[in-house]
Design goal:
Structural class: alpha/beta
Number of strands: 6
Shape: globular
Distance between the termini: 22 Å
Strand content: 15-25%
Number of helices: 6
Helix content: 25-40%
Order of helices and strands: EEHEHEHEHHEH
Amino acid sequence: EDTAGTFYEEIQRLPNGYFLVVERDSIKIVNYWKPPLKEGPRYRSIEEYGDAFRDILMKATADRIRDSDRIACTLSGGLDSSSVVAAVRQLSGGPAHANLATFAQVDPGGQDALAMIRSVVDQGGIDSHLIWPEDVTAESFDLPAFMRGSNEPFDVDQGWFAWITLQAARRRGVRTLFDGYDGDQMHPYSL
């Protein structure tokens, strides 16, 4: 995987965990950190792995809730975002007491995802906001601001989806936004 390349000719980025040292007669790229690779715990059953994952998810989520006022989550209908929503809802007092909003971008042809989103929302404690394609207009999508915040000219790999969702959450006064984006990409490496 090319971690240094960019869209721009003759411009490279530093890979994660590196810094650049520029001196009068040299340039060095120095690795300052590598994640420790160690074997994880071994459990006796898939249920024990599930319990351990749930404990870690709940602790990580609890550590990131700074207040209970205007918390929101993105919700795609996938297992990753649905799990984050369930954790935040439980930590926020359960369906009867949660003050939780969700933001979901909806594809009219994606009926399976929409059904999953609705099943999560129907469990209660959620103020659901669906973002439909017709909601994204030139007025609501500030392309120049998006471009200033992007690493590449067109961050088409979900970047504009995130931008639109963040803007919708900001307009509704959200202070803390949880996102399960790409959590499913970690799964193969975690077992």
